Amino acid sequence: MKIEPLPGVGAEITGVDLRRLSGGEFAAIRQVYADHGVIFFRDQNLSEEDHIAFAERWAPININRFFAAHPDHPEIALVAKDKEQKDNIGGGWHTDHSYDLEPAMGSILVARELPESGGDTMFASMYRAYNALDDATKAEIDGLSAVHSAHHIFGSGKSTYYSTTDAGGNRIGNASAADVLTDVTHPVVITHPLSGKKALYVNPAFTVKIVGKTEEQSKDLLARLYAHAMKKDFAYRFQWRPGSVAFWDNRSTWHWALNDYQGQRRIMHRITVEGCALH
Ligand code: OGA
Ligand code: MN
Q1: CATH superfamily for domain 2-273
Q2: pLDDT band for position 121 (50/70/90)?
Q3: Would you list the domain boundaries of the chain?
Q4: 8 A C-beta contact, residue 246 and residue 111
Q5: 113 pairs with which residues across the strands?
Q6: 257 Cβ below 6 A of ligand 1
Q7: Band of residue 169 on the pLDDT scale cut at 50, 70, 90
Q8: If you take atom 1 of ligand 1, which residue's CA is the nearest one?
Q9: Is it the case that residue 79 has pLDDT exceeding 90?
């Protein structure tokens, strides 16, 4: 097994077959995941059953409430875009599940059908983003919490992502379940449950405000943090190939699915595994 840290964020792991990992290999991979926030594998040959078995080694599987499921395997969410569809899923910087009290640990994404070109995914390190903040900003956000919500994304309101994109057709559903979710709060800076390192934990998709401030009053600080976290220094652009697998950590990274392959199909299988409360 070889580990190659990538510029910006993440590490590529070669020389392993995810269908048959020894206990020692699994432990080593777990450490790379905790340290780097996203890990990539190439040339894997995972069936749906293999994908599920690999996920189950990490944590219980979270069955997605909003994404369309694989017809034979409810554990697998479909992250799909068809030829005639215009909008994609995840097409802006975000981290998944921050709107949950115990945000999912991460997702294992397997490429099933790729466009001829395009459809890369960007990842960004929230460890690096936090570390690179100036001391004044670190002091400013120390002890703050933020409110996270899924209402404006997956809910049924007029201007939600669900309502305003063609993803609301057959790809994203169950808006009424999003409508009744209670907004949650998490620290703006978390101590990562696996690595013990500090990470910036706000994101442009689901964070709505700072606790104790109005949305309007929160805008400046959030915009500053986002502009900083989006810097190229903390990011890596992953180019998918058949057989590629990515496993990202929702607590220490952001990701963004590029939507630059209009007229072509892209089908990914995603399994998400459970996480824990964040402090
Ligand atoms: C996701 C997502 C990224 C991609 O599945 O949560 O944002 O590249 N997808 O499809
Ligand atoms: Mn996502």
Answers
A1: Clavaminate synthase-like (3.60.130.10)
A2: very high
A3: 2-273
A4: no
A5: 267
A6: yes
A7: confident
A8: 90
A9: yes
Cα-Cα-Cα-Cα dihedral sign, residues 31, 186, 253, 111:
positive
Q: How many residues does the chain have?
A: 279
Q: Name the closest ligand to CA 88.
A: 1
* Coil/strand/helix, residue 13: strand
User: Token pair 């964070």 is at which residue?
Assistant: 207
Active site residues: 94, 96, 255, 270
**Mean of the per-residue pLDDT values for the chain?**
98
| Half-sphere exposure at residue 213, Cβ-oriented, CA atoms within 13 angstroms | 17
Q: What is the pTM of this model?
A: 0.98
Of the candidates 209, 268, 237, the one whose C-alpha atom is nearest the C-alpha of residue 88 is 268
Instruction: In whole angstroms, give the CA distance from residue 58 to residue 90.
Output: 23
Q: Is the pLDDT assigned to residue 33 strictly greater than 90?
A: yes
Give the DSSP H or E segment for 237. strand 235-238
Ligand 1 neighbour 76 (Cβ under 6 A): no
- Closest Cα to atom 5 of ligand 1: 79
Mean pLDDT of 65-93: 97
* Half-sphere exposure of residue 274: CA atoms within 13 angstroms, side-chain side: 10
